[in-house]
Design goal:
Radius of gyration: 19 Å
Main location: membrane
Protein name: TLC domain-containing protein
Largest sheet: none
Organism: Allacma fusca
Membrane topology: Multi-pass membrane protein
Number of helices: 4
Number of strands: 0
Keywords: Membrane, Transmembrane, Transmembrane helix
Length: about 120
């Protein structure tokens, strides 16, 4: 749980951006990026993945269960790497631009298609 908790500050960052506190929003995005990299790309592989590789057989005596846990841990780590790329893009773009904008659509009806 400690690994997943620091990114909860992202909610405060979104509030700052919506309240037009651009500087605080940029700092919040940067803090999110730093904590993401530290927790997902440093702590996770050094402690959780290492434990999954070497200590799984101590807890799961049945071979399919331990292997499945390892495979799912590797998939999660791969997803962390992909998400890190996107978070870094957002962080770099927010410091390049004067104003941070939400890239999601404001129009709720944009995904609806008319059916005849």
């Amino acid at each position: 749980m400690v690994i997943k908790t620091p990114e909860d500050s992202f909610e405060l960052t979104k509030i700052c951006i919506y309240a037009n506190k651009q500087r605080m929003g940029k700092v919040g995005v940067t803090i999110l990026a730093v904590t993401w990299v530290l927790t997902r790309l440093v702590i996770f592989p050094l402690h959780i993945l290492r434990s999954a590789i070497y200590e799984t057989n101590l807890f799961f005596k049945e071979p399919p269960v331990g292997e499945m846990f390892r495979i799912l841990s590797y998939i999660l780590f791969a997803m962390h790497i992909v998400w890190t790329y996107f978070i870094m893009q957002v962080c770099i773009n927010c410091w390049k631009k004067e104003e941070i904008q939400d890239s999601r659509s404001d129009d709720e009806d944009s995904g609806d298609e008319k059916v005849d």
